Amino acid sequence: MASTGTPISGRMITGDQNPEEQNPEEQFFYEFIFRLFKENKVEIATAITKPFPFFMGLRDRGFIPEQMYEHFQEACTNLVPVDRVVYDALSELEKKFDKTILDALFSRANLKAYPDLLHVCRNFQNGNYNFQQLLGVQVHFIH
């Protein structure tokens, strides 16, 4: 999937390749970002306060099928708290995690609709996590 010029895009490692095909530095970085995603699912879920545009964006980009989209929409309609439904969606995304999921999650539309999501995005970008220091290696970012 193509990058949409989101803030996270300029900071991610190159390639949408399978993690096993990455060099050791890229593999370590991928695993680190995946861990951050898992550890921040609650923060992400609580930042997303309404179904639109989050679920529509996931469906439109092919991250969730129409049936799953409808299930999530129905759950929100049936008064399941939105943050709980979002957490369930993030758990589904975790199963097929890659860079493009972060691009979709931190898209301009989502950051505009959910201002609290910007804080989490900054954590991934550069705020609370200095990747090069934590990894002890030189990580090559695309610009």
What structural keywords apply?
about 140 residues; 9 helices; mainly alpha; globular; about 0% strand
In short:
The chain has 143 residues and is an all-alpha fold. It contains nine helices and no strands. The longest helix is centred in the N-terminal third of the chain and has 16 residues, at 24-39.
Describe the protein's architecture and organization.
With 143 residues, this protein is an all-alpha fold. It has one domain (9-135). 57% of the residues lie in helices and 0% in strands. It has helices at 24-39, 41-47, 54-60, 66-77, 82-94, 99-105, 108-113, 117-125, 131-135. α2 (41-47) packs across α5 (82-94) and α3 (54-60) runs antiparallel to α4. The longest helix is centred in the N-terminal third of the chain and has 16 residues, at 24-39. It starts with 23 loop residues before the first helix and ends in an 8-residue tail after the last helix. Residues 1-17 and 127-143 have low confidence and may be disordered.
Strand content: under 5%
- Taking pLDDT < 50 over at least 5 consecutive residues as the criterion, the unreliable ranges are 1-17, 127-143
Query: How many separate domains?
Result: 1
- The structure class reads mainly alpha
H and E order? HHHHHHHHH
Number of helices: 9
Overall geometry comes to globular
Helix content: 55-70%
**Whole-number average pLDDT?**
79
Rg over CA atoms: 15 Å
